[in-house]
User: What shape does this take?
Amino acid sequence: MFRILMATEHYYPYPGGITEHVYHLSKELNKLGNEVHILTTNYSKNYIGEPPFPKVIRVGRAFRFPINKSFTTFTFSPLVAKQIRDIVRKGKYDIVHAQGSIVPTIPYLAIMYSKSINFSTFHASHGASKGYEIFKPVLRPAFNKLHGRIAVSKSALETIRRHFEADYKIIPNGVDIERFSPEGKLSGKIKRDDSIKLLFVGRLEPRKGLKYLISAMNILVEKYNVTLYVAGDGPLKPVYRQYIGDKTRNRIIFLGYVHKDELPSLYRGCDIFISPAIGGESFGIVLLEAMATQKPVVATRISGYMEVIEEEKDGLLAEPKDPASLARKISILIENEEYRNMLATRGREKVLRKYTWEKVAKQVLEYYKEIYARYTQ
Assistant: This one.
């Protein structure tokens, strides 16, 4: 099989979708007979709790910068370019795979120094991305060296095609079905009372749409015994508290940052999972996590989410930025436990059918084989 270098700015202990994608994809590719090395950066945090992986190579030092109303990581060090060149050249890799686009520093330099067959996976969905616009002249040489290009969704594909027209293969994200399963302990952070328990998981930033869910809660508490648990942190927490009505004040519980190891038990403890994002979501990873734990999902009708949820078949979709629409969809599930259970069961079945990391890795490996054969024969 292949000797593969997976190049990424995002890896443990840095939390997020790309970190999980890199780890689980690399792990499954190894199981399929390949040898994967992960090339990433050094973070100031310690690595306690990092899942074991046979070969992780760290270079430079990570710094965070704001971009696209969120943050991204860049690696700096006087020696980082030479380190990456030596790793790429001496590693004798069949494939170099840049994760999280080909932005500086690590994915970009790995591709630029590579003499192997090169791939990149594009995760972002931000409409007109400022990052791509700023770096486009710099990124073009690296993009031209790519032999294979993967987008995690139609939304991510549309985003990258606005800046770099080419052929892309859509291969979705996956979810760890062993961790995110219906069986297991329940979180002690969610009360065992007779209220309907709603759960939100995400950073407290505008695009996650929490303020619209809080406004929907102001509607729901007039009729239902319902509690919203908010898992996530951010500087906007005081702002969001301003949207809470008097009757809702004791019905919304901010849990703060929740470690990834606690998330499965948190999902299991809720009755309905809500993701009210207003845009900028290339793929609904939190939706997959909830569905894998067999919980019914109410999400918003945005491009990244509509690729995961089929309305009224395995979840419900509300209009974005519309508290009344959110409240209506949630009330349907509050009032009909049988329907809740049916959507939850179908959601779990869909994840097992389409979104396990084993199935994702097999798709990636087949694409590797196709492109490798095309450019080496």
Notes: The chain has 13 helices and 15 strands. The chain has a mean pLDDT of 92. The radius of gyration is 21 Å.
